[in-house]
Specification:
Elements: E1 2-7, H1 17-26, E2 32-37, E3 40-43, H2 47-52, E4 60-66, H3 70-82
Antiparallel strand pairs: 1-4, 2-3, 2-4
C-alpha cells in the first residue's frame, strides 16, 4: 500500500470535469485506488464516489493505492492534482 497527502489546487475542486479527469487517469492503473477526505473514503475509480467527496480548493485529501503499480498510480494522481485541472 502506498499513500500520499495532497492539497487540491484547482478552483472548482474535484467536481464534474476535474473529477472525470481524475477517474480517467486512475483507471489506467491496475491498483485499487481510494481517496480520503474529511473522514470519508471512496473508490478513486468511481466518478460518483469522487464527486461525492465534495472536495474543494485548498482541502487536503489522501490518495491510497494497493497493487502492483501502486506507487506509479499515486504519483501520477498527485501530479495531476498539483496542476490546474481546468487548464487541461
Amino acid at each position: 500500500m502506498y499513500s500520499k497527502k495532497v492539497i487540491i489546487n484547482n478552483e472548482v475542486g474535484l467536481h464534474a470535469r476535474p473529477a472525470a479527469l481524475f477517474v480517467r487517469v486512475a483507471n489506467k492503473f491496475l491498483s485499487q485506488i481510494n481517496i480520503e477526505s474529511k473522514g470519508r473514503k471512496v473508490n478513486g475509480k468511481s466518478i460518483m464516489g469522487v464527486m461525492s467527496l465534495g472536495a474543494f480548493q485548498g482541502e487536503e485529501i489522501i490518495i491510497t493505492a494497493r497493487g502492483e503499480d501502486e506507487k506509479e498510480a499515486v504519483e501520477a494522481l498527485v501530479e495531476l492534482l498539483s496542476k490546474k485541472l481546468e487548464d487541461i
